[in-house]
Design brief:
Largest sheet: 8 strands, parallel, barrel
Number of helices: 9
Order of helices and strands: EHHEHEHEHEHEHHEHE
Mean pLDDT: 93
Helix content: 25-40%
Structural class: alpha/beta
CATH superfamily: Glycosidases
Number of domains: 1
Strand order of the largest sheet: 1-2-3-4-5-6-7-8
CATH topology: TIM Barrel
Number of strands: 8
Shape: globular
Oligomer: single chain
Length: about 375
């Protein structure tokens, strides 16, 4: 997702209210991918950010997340961002820290120098003049290069995403789905899959869309790539309640995706606000007026909503939920724009699970 363009809990409130429960029997299973996207964390640490546990003691943010129940961390990788962050070198650096703390690793390939999401899928500048055939080779070579570099340093990714929120394709215009023609996109996805498996056969491949809001859109996309012979291991969806509808609808989409394609499902992104206020000059990506399910914009509401998403995913038979950028509190110099990282602010400061002083919301937990 691109944040610039998007607009103490007690046990009795940690279950989904009756009005939000699905009406059909589920296939509840434990969540094994208890995830967090920490792509901005290295930059925050390099700028001197401090993180504090629930007791108010300074602590390593990785340890804080681990204590809260997270076991899987996600890193985006951009090809050649101007900021010098979220590139191959920084992903290699951060992967060492992640693996040293005992987490599993999900690498999110954007195949871009900047944010890729449903509204834009810009090719890296170095690939701008390449035709589809060359782009297929680019995807294979780049995926294999990053994956093997990680493997060589002892941090083999446990899973990768071939593209980020690719609702209508990636590497536009060549890889955009036009007139229901999935063949160009399929050729790119196959190369990403093949490169990943050539690097390490045990690495799981996710195909990620932001289609948790619409069963028809999700079927259109995944039916389309399946018909072209695309292989993937896990179906990944983004779910932000402000944009993607009710928990009941989320349950139905997960159940449909899981049964229709006979593959596990993961919520690769979700989050909820803890305040309506803004910590910096950058407008909040999600303003405090867009609350969901009667949950307030405070620490209790944030934790409750996250638990409801986890409960819904579990009841529908999903295997994981990732909180998007929980550590990205407002730190000057860690802006959203990789082309102007020092001059832009953080549009996610009201969505992180750490407040503006770096103290964690003690109520947010990941639960199997």
């Amino acid at each position: 997702m691109k944040p610039s363009l998007r607009a103490a809990v007690v046990a009795t409130i940690l279950t989904v209210p009756v009005a939000l429960l699905p009406t059909t029997a589920g296939a509840a299973t434990n969540l094994t991918m208890l995830g967090a996207d920490v792509s901005s964390l290295q930059r925050s640490l390099d700028l001197g950010a401090r993180y504090y546990d629930a007791a108010g003691a300074a602590a390593d943010p990785y340890d804080i997340l681990h204590s809260a129940g997270a076991n899987y961390l996600r890193l985006r990788v951009w090809n050649n961002p101007t900021s010098g962050y979220n590139n191959k070198a920084k992903v290699l650096q951060q992967a060492k820290a992640i693996k040293a703390k005992g987490f599993k690793l999900l690498v999110d390939f954007h195949y871009s120098d900047t944010w890729a999401d449903p509204g834009k899928q810009y090719p890296p500048a170095a690939w701008n003049s390449h035709n589809l055939t060359q782009l297929q080779k680019d995807v294979y070579d780049y995926t294999y290069d990053v994956c093997t570099a990680l493997k060589s340093q002892g941090t083999t990714p446990d899973s990768v995403q071939i593209g980020n929120e690719i609702n209508t394709g990636m590497l536009w215009p060549a890889g955009k789905v036009t007139n229901n023609n999935f063949a160009p996109l399929a050729g790119l996805l196959k190369q990403g899959y093949n490169a990943t498996k050539a690097c390490d056969g045990g690495t799981q491949v996710l195909i990620h869309t932001a289609d948790a809001d619409s069963m028809s859109n999700a079927r259109w996309f995944y039916d389309g790539i399946r018909a072209q012979g695309v292989r993937w291991d896990i179906t990944a969806l983004s779910y932000y309640c402000m944009w993607h509808g009710t928990l009941k609808n989320l349950y139905d989409v997960i159940t449909d995706m899981r049964t229709r394609y006979s593959k596990p499902v993961v919520i690769a992104e979700t989050a909820y606000m803890f305040t309506t206020k803004d910590a910096d000059s950058e407008k909040n990506a999600i303003p405090g007026t867009t609350t969901c399910d009667g949950q307030p914009a405070n620490w209790t509401g944030q934790a409750t909503q996250f638990n409801w998403v986890q409960n819904t995913a579990r009841d529908a038979g999903a295997i994981g939920v990732f909180y998007w950028e929980p550590t990205w509190y407002a730190v000057k110099g860690n802006g959203w724009d990789p082309a102007n990282i020092n001059g832009t602010g953080d549009g996610w400061d009201n969505m992180a699970i750490f407040d503006w002083s770096g103290k964690v919301n003690p109520n947010v937990t990941w639960k199997p």
